[in-house]
Amino acid sequence: MVTGGLAAVTTALALVAATGCDAITSAGGEGEGETHSVEEGFHVGLLLPDLYTARYEAFDYPYFEEALEEQCPACELSYANADGEVDEQQTQAQAMLTDGIDILVLDAVDAEAAAGTVNEASSQGVPVLAYDRLAEGGVDAYVSFDNHRVGQVQGESLLAALEEDGTAGDGQIVMVNGSPTDPNAADFKAGAHEVLDGQEEIGQEYDTPDWSPEEATTQMEGAITSLGADEITGVLAANDGMASGVIAALQSAGVSTDDLPPVTGQDAELAGIQRIVAGEQYMTVYKAIRPQAELAAQITVDLATGSDLQPGEHTLTQLEDGGGEEIESVLLEPVALTIDNIDDTVVSDGFYTVEEICEGEYADTEYCQEAL
Predict the structure, then answer these.
(1) What is the β-pairing status of strands 316-320 and 326-332?
(2) Alpha carbons 204 and 198: distance in angstroms, whole number
(3) CATH code, domain carrying 325
(4) Is residue 100 part of a domain?
(5) 24 and 135 assigned to the same domain
(6) Do the beta carbons of residue 36 and residue 304 sit within 8 Å?
(7) Spatial separation of the C-alpha atoms in residues 77 and 13, rounded to whole Å
(8) Are residues 96 and 152 located together in one domain of the fold?
(9) What global pTM score does this model have?
(10) What does R_g of the chain's alpha carbons equal in angstroms?
(11) pLDDT, tens digit, 9 for 90 and up, residues 204-249
(12) What distance in Å separates the CA atoms of residue 222 and residue 66, rounded to the nearest whole number?
């Protein structure tokens, strides 16, 4: 059902056979925590940041819901998506806290602004798990991918593409980074610079508010005006949505598909993979969302029951948030996805089928002709 006019969905998870943990007082927070157990269940709030990044509605939410149901069948899940609005997410969080959630899983629209939500939850004894982005305010744990490594993977892939094209060192590259309010974007940017600095000349560089594809188009149009389309040998676009904007600007400037410079991306969106098979986008960073969501569900249960965190095969590490707090964190490894390993990544993982990738106009591409 929709709660309080928000885009919130509350799902009472069906009961199935499972074993659980003993009841333990929940960890974290300034307030006095309540007692929760898997057998009796507890109320989880999940807040995701936007609708224009395809992964959140298509994968993160349903995967997390499924994993939580398996690990805590008596639990209840409330969900909301802020559609990129900081104020809306704060309102959604307050509504969930008022409704009596026992733990909050938060992917913040704005990490710094989220500190108020984290502090409010803490004052009520509600643990907060930062998901995918490290919110400020002293969250109890953090699950994401190694964001610095994501930027390195993008930079390494771009250098490899320039070598393949024989254009290394011949022109200038453009960097279209992510949102300045997203701490992940700063990590991606730092990782990319670590690889690219001293290797290629960066002709233009932008930070893109709200990860907006439309803003990326405008920025790329400015780069083309400043540098000239023929002088741009590659573009590091921080995610697939912005890669679409970059490519649109290049095509509007008269650059044919065969002459497009290599463009990076991230998130392995279906549209991004289709651009890869069509020869428009060089690569994307594949982050296996199901393992991330399953791990987040496990740590949600751990935090709510006061148990030690169980990261499975992954390693617990300490990361410092923007306020200097040390946060117990689990970071997963990203993968560079190109035309050469689509089958071994998103297809083999069940992320997309070949039929989905090769729908419509993409059926005539070389990849689809061989795969179908």
Answers:
(1) antiparallel
(2) 15
(3) 3.40.50.2300
(4) yes
(5) yes
(6) yes
(7) 7
(8) no
(9) 0.79
(10) 21
(11) 999 999 999 999 999 999 999 999 999 999 999 999 999 999 999 9
(12) 44
